[in-house]
Structure formats: C-alpha cells, structure tokens
Amino acid sequence: MSDVQFARIETASHGPLSLEYRWINRERTHAPLLVFLHEGLGSVAMWKDWPQQLCDAGGYRGLVYSRNGYGRSTPRARDEKWPVDFMHRQAREVLPAFLDAVGVGPEQADRVWLVGHSDGGSISLLFSAAFPDRLAGAVVLAPHLFVEDLSVESIAKTKTVYETTDLPAKLGRYHDDVESAFWGWNDIWLDPAFREWNLVGAVASISKPLLAIQGEDDEYGTMAQMDSIAAHVPHAKVVKLPACGHSPHRDAPAPLGETIIAFIGAHADRQAA
User: What is 5-272's CATH number?
Assistant: First the structure.
C-alpha cells in the first residue's frame, strides 16, 4: 500500500519498534476515529478494504496498524517467544506509545473508538480497562477472554495446514516475515502455560461503551466468550451473528457495519446531548 507510514516507538518489553500504519479519511479531523487492531495472524494489509468501507459508510476517520511481529512492522526475533502476558503488553505499552507517536493523545479521547478482532479484540478490552481516559468506547469482534478447548484444537489444525500446504505463501502477501507472524501466534496459543490466561477480572472494570460481536459459527471460540462479557460488563451490548464464523467483517460485513454505525451513533448523540 503506497500510503503506509511507519511510527518509531520505544517500549520497556520490546525496545525500539517500527510499526506500519495508514490513515483513512484523515482530513475528517472532527469525526470519530476508529483504531483497528488486527487478529492473531493479521496486519494492515490483511484487513483488505473493510476498514475503508466502514469509515466511508459511517463518516469516520480510521487508523490501521500492524503490531510488532506482523505485516511490515518490526518482526519477532527468531529466538523470541511471546510471553503469556503478550496481549497485556500490547495493550499497556505498545498501543499507548503508538497512539502518542502518531499524534492521537488523550485530548482526542472523546472521538477514539477501538475496533479489535480476535487477539486485537482482547487487546482492545485490556486497553479499555487500563486507559478509560483515552477512548470513547470499543467494538470487539470475536475477542478471547479465556482459552477454550475449541480454540486450541483449531489452532493446532492451523499449524498442520501451515506445515503441509501453501499457507505460508498465502500469508506472505500480508507479512514481510511470515515465520515471525505465524510462529509467534501459534507457539504461544499452543503453549500449555497459556491455558491459564484469563481476562475476566480485567474486563470487569471497563466503564466506557462496549459493543461485543461474535459469529455463532465461530471456529475459534464458543458463545461462552460473549456470555462472559455480558456477565462481567453489564452495560455492554452483545450481538451474536447467525451464519457467521470467526471473521464477521468477512462473513457478515453488511449487518456488522450497520450494527457498529448504529452503536457509535447512539453514543455520539448522548455525548452531544
């Protein structure tokens, strides 16, 4: 993508990083700003056209970036393994530093909405809990709050597919270092120590508006994830999409977009009032 830029940041856990990002409709300076956080094997390019389509339909600005280890951002070192708390570090260290680096400070909080998918959804939940003064609200698509047998089984199958098919070549369209992206994600999710990972206690403190959406046919998680959000974040709006798998923006873009636009619009109206 010709409009991709790079932000240089410094973090305690990862040291200096270069993160690729791109703006959508940047000229809409007073519009809600949607910050897109990709899935476990995602990147700026992996989102394809959906962020642009959503921002055009809702009249939003957008900011899409690749976490370190993915896309064209700083890759994971060959001998580095993501720790069990890797999503906490992304939410509490990398994302705040990235937003500061691209000029999205706390003074814009009333216009910032996180839109996170899968691992990106989990990171969005953690950021929402840790930095309520830096966002207006969050939209999470198929987030993980805890590790389920279904998740581990599906990720193990993906490992086999990666090792026996042309999946590495396909992922190579979206990542400069495919090995960094795949094994960083796959190794930690299949690590027995990761079975104890759990965000339920953290999300209970979320005070800002939250929209949680999951497909009923999600191959990486059950509706127990949505039910947990409903139980621990009572003000959250939970939507379960029929005939939809793990990626609502690919499987059900029309109802997903309508739901997000209506939710953000309703809360913008309340703020204006």
Answer: 3.40.50.1820
Say if residues 5 and 44 touch (Cβ distance below 8 Å): no
CA–CA gap between residue 84 and residue 107 (Å, rounded) = 32
Amino acid present at 131 = F
pTM score above 0.90: yes
List of the chain residues with pLDDT < 50: 1, 273
Residue 273's pLDDT is: 46
Starting at the edge strand found earlier in the chain, the sheet holding 15-24 runs 5-11, 15-24, 61-65, 33-37, 112-117, 137-141, 210-215, 237-241
Supply the angle between the helices 149-164 and 178-189 in degrees, to the nearest 10. 150
Comparing CA positions, the residue from 24, 36, 107, 99 lying closest to residue 60 is: 24
Amino acid at 186: N
- Per-residue HEC secondary structure of the chain comes to CCCCEEEEEEECCCEEEEEEEEEECCCCCCCCEEEEECCCCCCCHHHCCHHHHHHHHHCCEEEEECCCCCCCCCCCCCCCCCCCCHHHHHHHHHHHHHHHHCCCCHHHHHHEEEEEECHHHHHHHHHHHHCHHHCCEEEEECCCCECCHHHHHHHHHHHHHHHHCCHHHHHCCCCCCHHHHHHHHHHHHCCHHHHHCECHHHHCCCCCCEEEEEECCCCCCCCHHHHHHHHHCCCCEEEEECCCCCCHHHHCHHHHHHHHHHHHHHHHHHHHC
Domain boundaries, the chain: 5-272
Q: How far is residue 146's CA from residue 232's CA, in Å, rounded to a whole number? A: 13
